[in-house]
Amino acid sequence: MVVKNRLINPGAGLAGIIFLVMLLMSSVTLATKYDVVPPSGTHKGEDVPQPIEFPHDIHVKDNGINCMYCHTYARRSTVAGIPPTSKCMGCHKVIATDKPRIQQLTKYWEDKESPPWKKVHDLPDFVHFTHEKHLKTLAFDREFPVENIKEICAFCHGDVENMTVANKVKPLNMGFCINCHIENKDLGAPGDCWKCHK
Ligand code: HEC
Ligand code: HEC
Ligand code: HEC
Ligand code: HEC
Ligand code: HEC
Fold this sequence. Notes:
Elements: H1 2-8, H2 10-30, H3 56-62, H4 67-70, H5 85-92, H6 100-110, H7 131-138, H8 150-157, H9 174-183, H10 193-196
Helix pairs in contact: 5-6
Bound molecules: heme C (5 copies).
One heme C binds next to helix 7, helix 8, helix 9 and helix 10.
């Protein structure tokens, strides 16, 4: 009865239609279009000493910030990118300003410098790798929900969400890459040497 009344009222009717469309769209995104076989293998990386220990766990797990909010370039370029200090300061001008690490960060910001973040993952220069192509096929083309994108990042970076300091926990060596390409060759993952080696 309530539903019927809503449909008679033009404003509420539109809201009802929008709601139905959203419901339909969400059920589409819940089921992904095709499956991906995740890679296998682990690696025991050392903690990389950083200028400021950046806690992924506090940001991602405790505060629900999406990986791609900070690593903005992942979906459209080769590199995922480390966020500029201005992005940090969008929050840290007001959040946790009494904490020593935030005071360190603020000092970099005031000096117009970036903290000199050290690389955690670093492929040799003769290997070609692109985030964009992988994320397109492993996530966006199959309508994998963007809010869960960390599960796709985890294929190659592990459980960053729970890390107090970013650490390399997947081998990212030739066997790791090639095995995943073999498992997912139906999705166009190449096996030719020259695709990965320029
Ligand atoms: C609030 C911003 C922010 C969010 C959200 C965030 N990161 Fe980061 N990430 C950083 C910063 C800053 C660094 C550089 C410091 C470091 O390496 O510890 C970094 C480093 C990394 C690195 C290591 C880069 C290298 O040098 O190889 C990986 C991998 C990474 N992040 C993945 C993720 C994943 C996956 C998520 C989501 C689960 C995520 N990040 C969420 C800010 C963020
Ligand atoms: C198929 C494997 C794979 C997936 C999936 C993946 N990465 Fe990476 N990522 C790599 C490799 C390999 C490197 C090292 C690249 C290099 O050294 O040239 C890297 C490097 C990085 C770096 C540091 C260098 C850079 O590119 O800026 C960050 C940050 C990062 N990844 C974040 C992410 C995030 C966030 C996601 C998910 C949105 C993600 N990655 C998904 C394999 C992957
Ligand atoms: C969307 C908001 C947001 C952004 C953007 C953000 N942070 Fe944070 N950050 C938080 C919150 C919330 C906390 C938890 C504060 C608390 O515990 O009181 C936090 C905590 C921290 C802490 C731990 C402070 C401590 O000692 O307890 C560090 C270090 C930090 N952030 C660094 C960064 C850096 C570096 C960047 C940029 C790469 C960044 N944050 C971007 C919201 C943000
Ligand atoms: C989850 C499994 C998986 C892992 C792990 C993986 N790849 Fe891929 N890769 C794919 C798939 C699927 C494609 C096909 C993407 C497309 O072209 O649509 C692909 C495509 C590529 C391409 C072709 C991209 C282009 O520009 O045509 C290169 C190069 C590549 N991967 C390199 C690597 C390297 C190097 C690693 C290891 C550091 C790696 N991949 C790890 C699944 C994976
Ligand atoms: C899916 C991507 C991929 C393909 C395909 C691939 N490689 Fe590699 N290769 C890599 C990666 C990643 C490394 C870097 C390994 C490391 O840093 O430990 C590498 C390293 C190498 C090295 C340096 C020595 C070593 O083992 O570290 C040689 C030589 C090599 N590859 C030859 C080949 C040949 C020949 C083929 C074709 C039969 C091939 N690769 C196919 C990803 C690939």
